[in-house]
Design brief:
With about 625 residues, this protein is α/β, with parallel strands linked by helices. The protein is built from 23 helices and 17 strands.
Length: about 625
């Protein structure tokens, strides 16, 4: 076997290991499969034939054929179909993979085969999956970058979404959540005449009250519309009991939260029986939340920020109140990506100084608890290792509620102005990980402290030496357009290290109009002049806008995320159009688009196509009597 082919085989094997998929090389220990391969010669002789790798994941049979040369990836016949000629089967990766797939469908009991044609190397390659069933009709799928979608945990989802073209249970659940949020938003308006900032307080307060049912301190049946002890008073009493039970302290913090929830007790319209409902709006909202939302939060163990999702839906109808305040809530897939990029571990102390609805802290908590090995560690994570600051009182209340609902027995959140905090004192928290989505578009030459890059510096100064820090900010904040921003960037490099910047999908904050990026730093260590930073173009992240839903995960999202992580952690090389590694200056624009140039040598086919395009253009212009465009003396 040529040396190049061996290198490709080894690289493919590494990809399989990263996805925790065990396939066998050049044969199978499964008797049925091995017997079928005894007559699987690609030359059609009826003799033995072996693909590079073969094996079973759940009830799917995976087959891999690879070639070192990218030009040997796939060959089509005159009808645009994958060629079945013997020379195509033997010389081209996809053609060979399809041949083996069809042969195995015919000669084994496996009726769901995914054949992979792979060509190239780790830096420049193609990985094409082809699905084959007992009808022998193959279905080409979109190219992938890894095998993560075909692991034991993900392959059923891939099959449902990409091959059957159906929604998964999780997608159907998400659609229902968004539908419920829309319904509840309308009901809160119609039956409560509530301001947009008050709506999530009603939601989160009722969710806290519902927790008290476990202790016989609250019952929906007791919400009778009594005008002496109102439904609002009963819910408020249950909220008070639950805050005490959750050991929310100090007293002033508990009082701040209760003052926000007083709207439930004091709003007359919420406590009067509504004729259209035959009950008080509060009872109606409580029944709705109990059935549609509370049970999902209570029993769903994912890192999903349900209250944040509801709040995001409310803000999408609110006419821009959140944007006026610079509040842009962080999507779930981004909070999880932060945990992966920063490699959050059970012994970390995580700090979010602009915590909003606590989405980052919830994601960090779930990741840390998942990795924890004993109950004492889990208890410490919940009680001591999650810290947050939120300036807006109602957001602070929602964040605290959200953490309590997620099982954080003692939320270390404070309702203060982060920028007024002494970084030296904040360092005493011992935070080893910083995560932040700061307020956007608040800074100016008159208020340079409110630039997103200024928030970033303040966070870095508040972390322990060597802490990992990630911020999601508008791409414009990495350019340093103003004199003040340039000075902050220079100061950051004097005291901290920039690891890299990841440019994100323009629709990440769908409906807001902000194009974001993630910047990753190491705190407290001066940036080395010769350090190579990573600048990644992750605009194609596998998420797209779906009508009536917003940003939706496609079947390729997991694969693209895995590729990003592999490149970020140096497990894989990447083309410069995806990742540029370079030294930096504070005067640079810290973005992939600033450093990238196309360093790829065009193939002969690309060269011929470009020359052909030019000659076609020139001929067209001549036929239109515009030959003067090509006159060297034109314009003299």
């Amino acid at each position: 076997m040529p040396k190049k082919e061996v290198k490709t085989d080894l690289w493919v094997n590494d990809l399989l290991k990263q996805a925790h998929i065990k396939l066998e090389p050049q044969g199978s220990s499964i008797k049925e499969i091995n017997n079928a391969l005894k007559t699987a010669s690609k030359k059609g002789t009826g003799n033995v034939g072996f693909p590079e790798y073969i094996g079973v994941v759940k009830d799917y049979l995976l087959v891999i054929e690879d070639k070192a040369d990218l030009s040997k990836h796939i060959k089509f016949d005159e009808n645009g179909c994958i060629s079945t000629e013997i020379c195509a089967i033997t010389d081209f990766a996809v053609n060979g993979a399809v041949f083996y797939g069809k042969h195995l469908v015919d000669n084994t009991s496996y009726k769901k085969v995914i054949a992979f044609g792979i060509s190239g190397d780790e830096k420049k390659h193609r990985i094409t999956p082809i699905f084959i069933d007992e009808t022998e009709v193959y279905r080409e799928q979109a190219d992938v970058e890894s095998f993560i979608s075909f692991s034991k945990d993900n392959i059923d989802e891939y099959y449902i979404k990409e091959i059957l073209k159906e929604d998964t249970d999780q997608e159907r659940e998400t659609a229902e959540i968004l539908k419920d949020a829309s319904t509840l938003h309308e009901d809160l308006r119609n039956y409560g005449n509530l301001k947009d900032t008050d709506k999530p307080l009603i939601v989160s307060g009722i969710l806290l009250a519902l927790r008290e049912r476990e202790y016989k301190n609250f019952s929906i049946d007791e919400l009778t519309g009594d005008d002496v002890k109102t439904d609002g008073q009963k819910i408020f009493d249950a909220i008070t009991a639950n805050l005490l039970r959750s050991r929310v302290s100090p007293e002033v913090k508990k009082d701040k939260i209760l003052s926000q929830f007083a709207i439930i007790r004091d709003t007359i319209k919420l406590n009067e029986i509504e004729p259209k409902l035959g009950k008080t709006p509060l009872r109606y909202f409580t029944e709705f939340l109990d059935e549609r939302i509370y049970k999902s939060i209570r029993y769903n163990k994912s890192a999903e920020d349900y209250i944040g999702r509801f709040y995001g839906e409310f803000m999408s109808y609110s006419g821009g109140d959140g944007q006026t305040l610079g509040i842009i809530l962080t999507p779930k897939h981004i909070t999880q990506l932060f945990c992966d990029l920063l490699d959050v571990q059970p012994n970390d102390v995580v700090f979010d100084p602009c915590c909003g609805t606590a989405g980052f802290l919830i994601a960090a908590m779930h990741n840390m608890l998942y990795k924890a090995t004993n109950e004492n560690t889990k208890k410490n994570i919940k009680e001591k290792q999650l810290h947050g600051i939120e300036l807006q009182p109602y957001m602070f209340t929602i964040a605290t509620t959200n953490m309590i609902l997620r099982g954080d027995g003692k939320s270390n959140l404070v309702d203060e102005d982060f920028l007024k905090q002494d970084p030296g004192k904040l360092q005493l928290k011992g935070s080893t990980v910083g995560m932040m989505n700061p307020p956007y578009s608040q800074g100016s030459k008159q208020n340079p402290d409110l630039y997103e890059i200024a928030f970033t510096e303040h966070l870095l100064n508040s972390l322990t030496k060597g802490a990992r820090c990630g911020v999601i900010v508008p791409q414009s904040s990495m350019t340093g357009k103003t004199k003040e921003e340039k000075a902050i960037k220079a100061n950051i490099l004097k005291n901290h290290t920039l690891e890299g910047v990841i440019s994100l999908n323009k629709d990440t904050f769908y409906g807001v109009g902000t194009i974001p990026c993630i910047a990753i730093f190491t705190a407290g260590e001066q940036h080395p002049k010769r350090k190579l930073c990573k600048f990644v173009n992750f605009e194609n992240d596998g998420y797209k806008v779906a009508p009536h839903i917003g940003l939706k995960e496609t079947e390729s999202a997991k694969d693209k995320k895995q590729h990003l992580l592999d490149v970020w952690f140096n497990r894989m090389a990447a083309e410069s159009k995806f990742c540029v590694m370079t030294t930096i200056e504070e005067t640079d624009e810290w973005l992939h688009s600033f450093y990238y140039f196309n360093d790829e040598i065009p193939t002969a086919e690309e060269f011929i196509r470009t020359v052909g395009d030019y000659l076609s253009f020139e001929f067209s212009m001549i036929m239109q009597d515009r030959i003067y465009l090509f006159d060297k003396n034109n314009g003299e």
